[in-house]
Amino acid sequence: MLTNFIMTFIPLFVAFDAIGIIPIYISLTQDMDETVKVRVLRHSIITASAITVLFLLVGKGIFLILGITIADFQIAGGLILLIIAITDIIFSEQRSRKPHPSVGTVPIGTPLIAGPATLTTLIMLSDIFGIPITMVSLVVNLIIVWAIFSSAGRIISFLGEGGARATSKVVSLFLAAIAVMIIRRGIEGTLFPPPH
Questions:
Q1: How many folded domains does the chain comprise?
Q2: Do the Cβ atoms of 141 and 15 come closer than 8 Å?
Q3: Helices (H), strands (E): how many in the chain?
Q4: Is 56 inside a domain boundary?
Q5: Is 196 part of a structural domain of the chain?
Q6: pLDDT tens for residues 24-50?
Q7: Which are the contacts of 69, defined by CB distance < 8 A and separation ≥ 6?
Q8: Would you say residue 195 has pLDDT above 90?
Q9: pLDDT exceeds cutoff 50 at 12
Q10: Is 98 in a helix, a strand, or coil?
Q11: Residue-wise pLDDT tens digits, 78-107
Q12: Could you give the angle at the alpha carbon of 129 between the alpha carbons of 124 and 130, nearest 5°?
């Protein structure tokens, strides 16, 4: 049980990349007072939670309706993750955005927190380890994301802007490795489909 938790927790932690997106989060909220920041963070966590839980519960049903197999999604999702990871490693510049009232929902809640990497990782983990343990790891990771964003100012002061970027690059490298693993499993599933 503990092993399965660790095996689901770590890929989700890497996919969320909370520390890596702190600079973007700070740039979006730096001109807000503390009350507004708390409200924005609450909206972002609620949005990310709703999207990830919904996707975890009905993602496979959507696959059945569209005629998509897990192997199809593994290969496509792995390619997307790989592109995201490579893009983040090569292109380090951050896009500047002006804060607006719905910033907690978009872009912080999604796609920054609940983005393609997280959703793809969720569906893969639920297929391998099952929904219950994946749900536990998801909830723990969302709590960690909330805690990290709540301490964003202190973390940036400790790491520095360069340290946060370096951390993001390392996380992106792990994400690229996970993407390759997902693609490999998708190809293996296509070549050697499990018995029904």
A1: 1
A2: no
A3: 7, 0
A4: yes
A5: no
A6: 788 778 778 888 999 999 999 999 999
A7: 63, 189, 193
A8: no
A9: yes
A10: coil
A11: 787 688 678 777 775 554 444 565 788 988
A12: 90
State how far the Cα of 17 lies from the Cα of 89, in Å rounded to an integer: 13
Q: Is residue 29 part of a domain?
A: yes
In angstroms, the CA 113 to CA 124 distance is: 18
Count of other CB atoms within 10 angstroms of residue 97: 11
What 3-state class would DSSP assign to 13? helix
- Residue 25: alpha-carbon gap to chain centroid: 14
Which domain covers residue 127, as residue numbers?
2-191
Question: Within 10 A of 64 (CB to CB), how many other CB atoms are there?
Answer: 9
pTM, full prediction: 0.70
Contact 71, 186 (CB under 8 A): yes
Cα 115 from chain centre: 5
For residues 192 and 179, what is the distance between their CA atoms, to the nearest angstrom?
Answer: 20
Type of residue at 90: I
Q: Give dist(CA 62, CA 91) in Å, integer.
A: 33
| 9 three-state secondary structure | helix
DSSP state for residue 93 in the 8-state scheme: P
Q: Could you tell me if 50 and 113 are in contact, meaning their C-beta atoms sit under 8 angstroms apart? A: no
Does some domain include residue 92? yes
Measured between alpha carbons, how far is 121 from 98 in angstroms, rounded to an integer? 30
